[in-house]
């Protein structure tokens, strides 16, 4: 799910993640496959 993918990047668990746009896109694409 998007939440579990989000949590992988949300290392300090504060609901804010810092990722590059390419990482975000690949995260979304892997969910759609």
Write the layout of secondary structure elements.
Elements: H1 2-9, H2 21-32
What can you see in these coordinates?
It is a single chain. The protein has 33 residues and is mostly helical. The chain is 61% helix and 0% strand. The chain is built from two helices and no strands. The chain is flat and about 30 Å long. The termini are close together.
Supply database-style keywords.
33 residues, mainly alpha, flat, EF-hand-dom_pair, EF-hand domain-containing protein
Summarize the structure.
This protein is mostly helical and 33 residues long.
Mean pLDDT across the residues is: 78
The number of distinct β-strands equals 0
Report the uncertain regions.
none
What is the N-to-C succession of helices and strands?
Answer: HH
The whole-angstrom Rg is: 9 Å
Distance between the termini: 12 Å
- What shape does the CA trace take? flat
Instruction: Tally the structural domains.
Output: 1
InterPro entries: EF-hand-dom_pair
Protein name: EF-hand domain-containing protein
Organism: Bracon brevicornis
């Amino acid at each position: 799910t998007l939440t579990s993918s989000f949590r992988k990047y949300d290392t300090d668990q504060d609901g804010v993640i810092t990722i590059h746009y390419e990482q975000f896109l690949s995260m979304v694409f892997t969910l759609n496959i």
